[in-house]
Write a structure and sequence with these properties.
The chain is α/β, with parallel strands linked by helices. It contains five helices and 15 strands.
Length: 259
């Protein structure tokens, strides 16, 4: 909700936070009214502040930025249109303009890499328009090539690397199968990231509490899943009890079930 977003933005000011990561699904679908609502939140909290007096804001795209209308159907228009509305908001509030789907920042001794799938990976068409697998974490061969370049450049200075992807790739809750287009994409990501043990892969998407024991994984690299609240609760469609009821947790970690 707008109130949750404003609370988070105000928290960054009250606690002198240097970096704020928006790791996808900021809006529910790709409509102007949702981006305007988000922009209004940023304006109310940050609007009167110079960039140096607020945190560096890093934006990533999630699957919901690639939906449109109330049906949450995959966006079937061109990729540039989908990304355009997102970048308009992101570039207004980021200190450096975002021009690529994979980009890097080095802030106070930490390398941040934001990786959104690019326009090369598609899966069929709707009404003659390609459906982009960016909505499902579908990285293409070119995306993996570009990501490796960013990782290699970041590794040169020896500083920690925080890789932000909306979808989970480690063996955290919901990963690696949650919403992935194919095992080959997952395996390719694992094969790439295992060469960078200094990585912390920060993911979202699963709507599951970060307090859950499976929100953290450390194999060849570290993976941390930050679940988002839905109507004040964390939930996942992947975990049900013996009666088939969905397991959810409230924001305090109290477990409930719903049919």
């Amino acid at each position: 909700s707008q109130q949750h977003l404003e609370n988070a933005l105000q928290y960054t000011l009250d606690n002198d936070i240097d970096v704020l990561i928006i790791n996808g699904d900021l809006v529910n679908n790709n409509q102007d009214k949702y981006y305007k609502a988000a922009d209004d939140c940023f304006t109310r909290i940050y609007g009167n502040l110079a960039p140096k007096n607020r945190p560096e804001i890093l934006f990533n795209m999630g699957n919901h930025e690639f939906y449109h209308g109330d049906t949450s159907r995959h966006q079937s228009t061109i990729y540039d249109e989908e990304v355009g509305a997102f970048r308009t908001l992101a570039n207004k509030w980021s200190s450096v303009a975002i021009t690529d789907n994979i980009y890097s920042r080095h802030i106070k001794g930490v390398n941040y890499i934001m990786a959104c799938p690019g326009p090369e990976a598609t899966d069929g068409e709707v009404e003659g328009h390609p459906i982009y697998l960016a909505a499902l974490g579908g990285y293409s061969d070119q995306d993996f090539t570009d990501l490796k370049t960013h990782l290699d450049n970041a590794a040169l200075n020896g500083d920690p690397i925080v890789l932000c992807t909306h979808h989970p790739w480690g063996y955290t809750y919901g990963g690696p199968s949650y919403g992935m287009p194919s095992d080959s994409v997952v395996n390719t990501m694992h094969d790439l990231l295992k060469n960078y043990p200094q990585i912390i892969n920060l993911t979202s998407h699963t709507h599951y509490s970060s307090l859950h024991e499976r929100a953290f994984d450390q194999t060849n690299y570290s993976s941390l899943n930050i679940g988002m609240l839905y109507k004040g609760k964390y939930s996942s469609t992947f975990e049900r009890d013996e009666n088939g009821e969905l397991i959810i947790e409230d924001k305090n970690g109290c477990v409930n079930t719903v049919k």
